[in-house]
Amino acid sequence: MSKLTGELRPLRNDGGKSNEREGTWFFCNALPDTEDLILIGDGAFYIVRSTKASDSYAQRSIKLPASAALAQREKLGVFLHRSGKDAEQFARFVALQKMQNISAQAYSWREEVSAVVDTIVGLNDAIFLGGEFKDPAGLVETITIRTAFGETFALDQFMVRPKNAKDRFCALIPVKRGGKNNVQIRGQVSLAPGSLAAIASPFWTGDLNAARTRILSALPAASLTEDVLGEVIGPALKKAYDTYHEPPIAEEIMSFGPVLSAPDCTLIIPLYKEYGFIKPQLQSFHFDPEFQNTEVVYVLDRPEDASAVEHLIKGLARIYKVSVRLVVNAKNAGFAGASNLGASAAASDLLLFFNSDVVPGQSPWLSNWITRHRSKGLVGASGPRLLYADGSLQHAGLYSEKDLMPWYTNHHYFKGYPGDYPMALESRPVPGVTGACLMMDKDLFEDLGGFGDEFVVGDFEDSDLCLKAIEAGRSNYYFGEISLYHFERASMNQSQAYTKSGAVRYNGWLYSEKWKDALESIAQPEAV
User: Fold this and answer.
1) Torsion from C-alpha of 70, 76, 82, 83, nearest 10 degrees
2) For 218-349, where are the E strands, in sequence order?
């Protein structure tokens, strides 16, 4: 047999037939004279054929039953893994699976038995599965799954089925082969009478945000108890972060208004869908006589809106003469990622993280804040009094405690009290301040690693940063004489990942796990 060397790569069949589809095969660098060649490896064989006819591999595989096509694909996956192919080859294997697009398969028998795997996320060393399983009479002996690289598992031993999740289940299954390239699996339901039925998962592809959304949506939010989070959902989300996390990258940076060589402070304002506060913010900054040497860095966390937001800021900057830069994130990274990207672009050594729905309530305010912040020795983070639109208190410092949930959640002192409540007017050290309006020295922010982006969407990053500052020997301060308005969660509520999933529960659980040895001593509210 002639020696065959080559690679797996996508192919578009250009045979001129309108009904021909895309496919892939193992292509050699130089095909021998023979028309067909058999490639043998690790117990599987493959026919390599040079053809553009309508009976090409892509056409023939489309006609196969789903289980047969998945089995054929699995043999190729086993071969690739055992022959030590590189990451590029596995990426092409994923492309093969995507182009063949074998539909998910569910099994049901009358009303007694049903099984479907409707969620899959490939991870570095595991597969996360979610689905529905109904078997009240106990007719199912076992459900066996096979990965795209030939590993076989009894799903039963990994299946987590919370009582309040109806028939939903999830599972985190460790794998030795293929890692995140396990993007579709097949399975087999074995019934007590001896009959077998095939099932198959849908095809998975996506980034960190997509992986988080799928994992959090696999079960109803109310089912995410401390046990379920600790056993499967929490570890799965941590693995998703390790597998798919990429540092945010600026796709474009645009400058408007006057250019400042050494600004006193850099305001960092993430933007996501909600752009209605940009005008009142810039208008307020313009009429503040002590704001002239301050730069504003807007970080757009929704790059598809770049043209519209650029047009908006460009026009407003001409009117209000504020030094503004627009940093366009290459893709959505959430509050922490966008804030960290803005910090990396800041020209000042003093950072002020500022929500897109925060508007100053007095003038001047920033110069007083900077003076107070710099007057404190070993300062960590500092924050002001924040008011709702009706003048009531939204924030007067932040602390964490357990209440209705079995994990710590964040609370604001005097929330809902009158805005001029006397005790809220007193400046004092606090466990933390809200990230909606938080000042910190740039060098300290960088030393602490910035906002932790392991939290989903935007929650607990502020208290996490403040606890990191305390751990580093710093103190956090609340300045009650400085006030701004905060129209809370106007932008966060735009995110379906936050409003329609168990993200809040996961974030609370993760925060408590991360700081469980410190929260009892440093995060409880002080006497006020």
Assistant:
1) -170
2) 250-256, 265-271, 294-300, 323-329
